[in-house]
Amino acid sequence: MNTSPWNKQKVLEVLRDAGVNPTSQRVEIGYALFSSCAHLSAEEIMQRVNADYPVVSKATVYNTLGLFAEHALVREVIVEPGKVFYDPNVSAHYHFYYVDSGDLIDIPASSLEISNLPELPPDTEIERVDVVIRIRRRSTH
Amino acid sequence: MNTSPWNKQKVLEVLRDAGVNPTSQRVEIGYALFSSCAHLSAEEIMQRVNADYPVVSKATVYNTLGLFAEHALVREVIVEPGKVFYDPNVSAHYHFYYVDSGDLIDIPASSLEISNLPELPPDTEIERVDVVIRIRRRSTH
DNA sequence: ATATGTGCAAAGGTTTTGCAGGCTG
DNA sequence: CAGCCTGCAAAACCTTTGCACATAT
Q1: Within 44-103 of chain A, which residues have Cβ less than 7 Å from strand C?
Q2: Coil, strand, or helix at residue B48?
Q3: Are residues A100 and A78 in the same domain?
Q4: What is the pLDDT of residues A13-64, one digit of tens each?
Q5: Nearest partner of B131 among B77, B80, B74, judged by Cα
Q6: Which residues are recorded as binding Fe cation (chains A, B) (predicted)?
Q7: Does A124 sit within 8 Å of B135, measured CB to CB?
Q8: Can you tell me the distance from the alpha carbon of A56 to that of A65, in angstroms, rounded to the nearest whole number?
């Protein structure tokens, strides 16, 4: 039996359910993304997909991840200029970011409460609330 | 009399107090940044500095803004991959980000309360807490 | 046959690097 | 004059675009 919750057939179904045409490139990218529990950069995803032989171009990795994000299959986490992570966890949650190592750690939404949110500008609605707690190794004085 | 709180002499003093050698390029960039109350991109800052004739190169704008950020003279606000704003307000505060127009609006720290912060990983300390509330024009159904 | 969708090479934009020239002690 | 600092041209990097090819009606 297969101990992993993900296989390519399941990815295919998830894409179709989300309204994304499940082409082979998209299934490969989705598999690399979902079967990892980590926060991956576009570069890392491409390396995994193309580990054995070239399967997708970099442009397709970017375009596909953008498409997944539109369909709420993945969440973009922006931590540095030119450094986007793709987080397969799309439920509401926040992040610790290790400034030194570049690692990203989830904070469950239940662990952090935001209150007294100010009134939104007129005729606007919230798309998302991003919270990144930037931490560093405590300096040894 | 001068009605603006900023002039180049004052910028020079602020740089020196922060431990940044106040070269002419840095004073020009600092003046463009501090005398504006807006959130400017590196590109916009360069346009202001070089409005009349070339004063600094793009590389120097980037390097100088990075230097200012290290010395807490400016705060980098990252809202999109490859889109950094420089915010002369370095006190604790948060941001609304208009997804559609790219505008950024300050939220005073007093307007938003974060509680139940989870325990930090061992031997780490908070550098900064970034909160970006991404908003969009409400769709007209 | 026409229209729509897809993947990628090439282009575009942003940020970093490496080094020539200047300044300081 | 030796060593450090500064500014910038060029390089590197990340992301988007435009188009050729494929697929569906």
Answers
A1: 56-60, 63-64, 81-82
A2: helix
A3: no
A4: 999 999 999 999 999 999 999 999 899 999 999 999 999 999 999 999 999 9
A5: B77
A6: 113
A7: yes
A8: 12
Q: A134 pairs with which residues across the strands? A: A97, B128
Q: Is any atom of strand C within 7 angstroms of residue A41's beta carbon?
A: no
Please tell me the distance from the alpha carbon of residue A4 to that of residue A87, in angstroms, as a whole number. Answer: 18
Is A72 found in the same domain as A101? Answer: no
Half-sphere exposure of B97 (CA within 13 A, CB side): 20
- Are B79 and B40 contained in the same domain? yes
Q: What is the pTM of this model?
A: 0.91
Distance from CA(A7) to C1'(D3), angstroms, rounded: 60
Q: Verify if strand C has an atom below 7 Å from the CB of B6.
A: no
Query: Residue B58 falls within a domain, yes or no?
Result: yes
CB contact under 8 A, A127 and B121: no
For residue B10 the two structure tokens come to: 């004052």
Q: In this structure, what token pair is assigned to residue A101?
A: 């190592």
Instruction: Report how many Cβ contacts below 8 Å link chain A to chain B.
Output: 111
Closest-approach residue (CA) in chain B for A105: B121
* Residues A79 and A95 reside in one and the same domain: no
Report the distance separating Cα B87 and Cα A62, nearest Å: 29
Which bases of chain D are contacted by protein, using any atom under 7 A from a CB?
5-10, 13-18
Q: How many domains does chain B have?
A: 2
| Partner-chain contact A105 B121, CB within 8 Å | yes
Q: pLDDT tens digit string along B41-84?
A: 999 999 999 999 999 999 999 999 999 999 999 999 999 888 89
Residues B13 and B82 occupy one common structural domain: yes
B52 backbone dihedrals φ, ψ, rounded to 5°? -90, -45
Asked if residue B107 and residue B64 are part of one domain, the reply reads: no
